Amino acid sequence: MKAFLLWCLFFYLALILLVKLALQQHLIQIIDHLIQTIFIFYLVIFNKHTLINNHIMKRIITILMENNPKGLTLNLPKLLLLVVMVFGVQAINAQTQTYTTPGTYTFTVPAGVNSITVSAWGAGGAGGGVTGNGGLNARAGGGGEGGSFVRGTITVTPGTLYTIVVGNSGVGSTGNGTSGGASSFGGSGLFNAIGGDGGDAGLNGSRFGNGGAATNTGNVVSGTTTSNNYGGNGGNATTAGTASSGGGGGSAGANGGGGSGSATAGGTAGANGGVVGAAGRGTSNDGIGLVGGNPGAGGSGARNANSTTTYVGGNGGNGQVTVAWTCAGPNVSNFSTTASTVCSGNSSIITVTSTSIVSTGNYNVYYNLTGANVTSTPQLATLSFNTTTNVGTFSTIALANAGVTTITLLSVDCAVLSTGN
Q1: Which one of 102, 193, 215, 260 counts the least CB within 10 Å of its CB?
Q2: What does the alpha-carbon distance between residue 254 and residue 229 come to, in Å, rounded to a whole number?
Q3: Comparing C-alpha atoms, which of 353, 351, 328, 356 is closest to residue 413?
Q4: Rounded distance, CA 49 to CA 39, Å?
Q5: What's the predicted TM-score (pTM) here?
Q6: C-alpha–C-alpha distance, residues 232 and 122, integer Å
Q7: Where are the beta strands (DSSP E) in 87-203?
Q8: In what order do the strands lie in the sheet with 191-193?
Q9: For 96-153, what is each residue's pLDDT tens digit?
């Protein structure tokens, strides 16, 4: 098909040239240009390397346009001649996938990734609720405990599947608050961050609930550069100011556990990733408990010192799982590339051949344009690659200007990850 199209173009150009030159009796130029053009088209058709073909096409246009006699005008198509260059850079890219909505997910290790760092927060416990008091016997609920935190770096194999669970927050009611759910990666035996305990309700018999305070056991962490911390206890409700509900415990972080809540105050956040617990309610401040922040802060207790209304405790914060990795993308210095020659206003299809890419999929590719079309910053495109044939393609932006454009391939990232939320 390429040979056919090139021959058609040759005859079109040659016919215009012969007719117009013949009319002006420039017979020597006819013979000279015809010999050069036939020779160049022979090279184009029997040479399969598009880079060389592009240079040859440029020479054809030059031959046909140079030294034209006065009054000779050739109405040629506005061709874009493309040259692809490879700038041998291996991209090193840090990437992160974060899961924040409670539920179950599957994480697939991307191509080119050999280790990952997993961070997980358990969900926060809910604060305790209160019943109505008929104007007597003020009561308040205890705060929920903050969720725990684990982190570690493990060795992985590209294509391996891991199950991720994001813990659901503890839920407040007019009774005791429920505990937050654990968050895990690869099952509870690989990485597991427990959720916080729920706070007790303020009821007729026990008017001031205790804060959630589970024993600090149950976390599981694997690999190297590990971190293992627990959330702060929920605050106990007290009689201060007639009644004060307990604040939620702070969630843990990579560099420390969460602080414990107190009457009306939430616990401090664990260093590097924790969240402050929800504040409790104090004097003349009846109402539901406040919701703990994400990830993993404890909810606060409800308060009722003045009415028959029942109030629910505040929900805890949701859990969270984050997966981070550094990808050394394939080295592009050994790539073979070709470009389609197009008319102005269209995109060019770039074909990439490589044995450095080991997995079929979509990859981020970065390139620059110089020459007739220029880009001031690297352009991002998606390279669709098939390892069965070791060939992939991507499209450039629309090229507005006719002339020779050089496309410089800068780098190729790891496979594009499409899972997560």
Answers
A1: 215
A2: 7
A3: 328
A4: 17
A5: 0.67
A6: 12
A7: 92-99, 103-108, 115-121, 139-140, 149-155, 161-166, 183-185, 191-193
A8: 103-108, 161-166, 183-185, 191-193
A9: 899 999 999 999 887 778 899 999 999 999 999 998 775 568 899 999 999 999 999 9
